[in-house]
Amino acid sequence: MSEDVRNDMISQRLAQAYQKHLQAELEVMAAGAQAQAGGPKVNIYSNGGYGCNGYTFNILVTNNGYVDYGQAATTVQDGEASPEKTRAEPRVLVIRDVRVCAMQSGTAALLDSGATHSLRSAKDKMEWEAAEHVTVQLAGNVSMPMRMSSGGSLLMPPKQATERFGQVRHDHQTIVPLGELVRTLGYTLIWSGEGCFLEDEAGRRTKLKISGGCPHLQETEALALIARLEDRKREELENGTMTTLDRMAMAVAYMEKSWLEHLESYVRKGTTEDGLRAVRDAPFLEGVPGECIDGLVQGNILSAGWKVFKDIEFLSRAQRRRLWNAKRWVVHLYAGDPGHYEFFQLDQAGTVVLELDVQRCKAHDVLRDKTW
User: Residue 69's pLDDT band (boundaries 50, 70, 90)?
Assistant: First the structure.
């Protein structure tokens, strides 16, 4: 017999013995109260010499079902005491229900590595009726109709519903998905010669029982883990919903940007999509067929900027470097020959003026891909 089984048996026997002891005391007090039907309304049961310094402890059972537990005011001497000196000052204790619970004797829950969802009993009839009807795909291509809670756990009928509504009771086993514990809550399963343990992120270990080659844990602990899984999934769902709403708001704002804002974004970030939207929404290109404006936007302008400069035939190396280091450009198309002095006055303080005209150079033709 293993140590765990022996400890469980000892715990159960102690619990049963203590429960019988309490039941016997209550029966004795109830019988004494009924026997004194014609006498006084209070029955006193004394246990002399109990406690420290020989104090007398009294239990008073009244006809209305109350149990009074008190201590005498003076000590007992020679078995006799005056009623005036031993007048008790009782404290009232109302016994409604007596239950002895043992955590080690609870129902075991299965820790399943192949399960994708938690399986538990519904908390009450309201949760069972409000659950969503789903179809669960089992092993062997077998489908089964079940119910799912708002937290994403599969539900079984509530255990108390069978006793309350007169239905036939069926025992169910709670199932905890091991994969979700590892992925969502950061648990680790340790299975060695010393035993099987479930370790959390803080390093605290919970010993598991092995039954039929499968790890089991107490149902109360399993339900606590399932509650944490449901809370974490609900939190992830809420965060995902907020992220989706933010992305939708950004998409709406992006669609409402003007062509100039798209053009500035294309120049700043180099994204081809912004450049295409700028060309498409430009008012001066309205009505121009799409095939005519294809190729106006170049991709990878940020990473291949110097390569674009090297392909321009009419620029010298010094002019390329000057344009490359400039903060602002002023491109004057069809400037004419010899040009305009007013534009050259802008060529200062980090601003470079570039004039293009085919009359000056045939390479200035903007219809050429390299020039454009």
Answer: very low
